[in-house]
Amino acid sequence: MKNLAKIGLGILTSVGGYLEAGSLGTALQAGAAFHYSLLWAIALGTICLAFLVEMTGRLAAVSHHTVVDAMRKRFGIHLQVWPLGAQVIVDLLVLASEIGGVALALQLATGISIRVWAVPVVLLIWILLWRATFDAIEHGVALLGLVTLVFVVTACWLHPSWHSVGRGLLPSRPPHDSARYAYLAVAILGATISPYLVTFYSSGAVEERWTVKDLLPNRVVAALGMSFGSLISMGIVIVAALILAPRGIAAQTYQQATVVLSIPLGRWGFWLFCASLGIGCAGAALELSLDVSYIIAQTFGWQWSENQRPHEGARFALVYTGALALAALPSLAAVDPLKLTMFSMAVTVIALPIVIAPLLVIMNDRRYLRSHTNGWTTNIAVAVIVALAFALAVLAIPVQLTGA
Amino acid sequence: MDLVRDLLDMRLVDRHQRSIGRVDGVRLELRPGAPPRVAAIDVGLITAARRVHPRLGRWIHAFARRWSPVPLRSVRLSLRLLRDVGVDIELDVDASSDRRLLRLEKWLRRHVIARIPGGGA
């Protein structure tokens, strides 16, 4: 019974917290440009993410180490600085994208520029972390995040051809513009396999003192939570394919993309789009700011906790404060949030092997996992998907940047 | 004890389970006619940085001497303080009263965090 409640809450939190700038932006553009034919990238990324989340939960339950703890101990600081550095850069870029997303949602709703909204948005996120504890806000944020299910409901209500949707789940030759197709596939994989979820989830599991008894709920939450969450991304692709594509709207900016809900749902659709964007991005921004503090604190052996007050962890609190200040800069400079998001997702994929390869080594080390080391399915699935994403990125990013 | 695996990079906690850093370096005592023995452990950013690259260690050292409000040199702790080795290494020290430990953390708490509304205890 306790397990059931735990599983339910875990799934709810995963679904409510699933949508953020990366998954929304990439899914909108994919649906608008290629209908359903990039759905496979979401499915593939979700499989990889579910494996990764299950792995880090298992590491925490069996060895009581967070991913960063284990990496520093297993590889030493001289090697661990590479995954750490890669992840700090990715976290900051994605955090900047999320802040841009919240500020843009407010710009859409009020007509006041993101440059003006950037400071209040960052201040609000900072005050929530500084004054409240994450424990107190995480479930509230996840509950509000369920508003993003509007995309799934609208997708069903529009009666797509489920046969075509099913075909999109299998990779196919790009219908046209293969460079853009590959680039969007990379961005979707980067948005789905977010490295911050891995370190964030593992920190939570260690803090809640998981034991081997939690292995089963961990597996169920990883599989179901991530799958249900990915339905939201798929819903966005479907709605974008049915609403944006026939009208030739490319969704190059969020401003253009609002019609994805306002055409089928009217004025309410517009407000629901703003709410989904704002709440989804705000939830992710909270987690990302904390994640930067987590990984730096764990690397250097500082006291860390989602519930500690600033005076209990001065350096911890100042790290997220600094991260938020830095991440506000692109919005202050009025960098387009959707362009920043697409860029951040591509950088994420380039950084993935640096972060995931050492994790795979640890997950096969009996000194940490005892008899619970990875099976070969997990090893192969994660290694192949990460390698594929990386290879695709190496091919697609230069072409996208040069515009060839 | 396998030094590299069992000691280096482990997290250190005080007797109240409060984190005080990691084993950033290990000091060996060379004895004629006997195997080297661990004499002490070093805890501090500069020692860790030196292991990443000696030049990085020098840079941080120079930067800290110029700008840091508290000395950032590493603390040397005797292995006689060792109480328990598990996921972390527990030392028989008290982080809040021991003036060698958490110098930057304590300085920031007093001079920065306490001056920001909501940061105090």
Globally, the shape of chain B reads globular
**Tally the helices of chain A: what do you get?**
19
Query: In terms of structural class, how would the helical and strand content of chain B be classed?
Result: alpha+beta
Q: Name the helicity range of chain A.
A: over 70%
CATH superfamily of chain A: Amino acid/polyamine transporter I
Radius of gyration of chain B: 16 Å
Overall SS class of chain A: mainly alpha
- Residue runs with pLDDT of under 50 for 5 or more positions of chain A: none
Count up the helices of chain B.
Answer: 4
Beta-strand residue percentage of chain B:
25-35%
CATH architecture of chain A: Up-down Bundle
Our measurement of the CA-to-CA distance between the termini of chain B, rounded to an integer number of angstroms, reads: 41 Å
Radius of gyration of chain A: 20 Å
What is the class of chain A in the CATH system? Mainly Alpha
Structural features, described:
The complex is a heterodimer of chains A (404) and B (121). Chain A is mostly helical. Chain A has a single domain (2-403), classed as Amino acid/polyamine transporter I. Helix content of chain A is 79%, strand content 0%. Chain A has 19 helices and no strands. Chain A is globular, with a radius of gyration of 20 Å. By secondary structure, chain B is of the alpha+beta class. In chain B, the strands form two sheets. In chain B, strands 2-1-7-6 form a four-stranded mixed beta sheet, with no helix packed on it. In chain B, strands 3-4-5 form a three-stranded antiparallel beta sheet. The longest helix of chain B is centred in the middle third of the chain and has 14 residues, at 54-67. Chains A and B meet through α4, α5, α6 and α16 of A and β2, α2 and α4 of B.
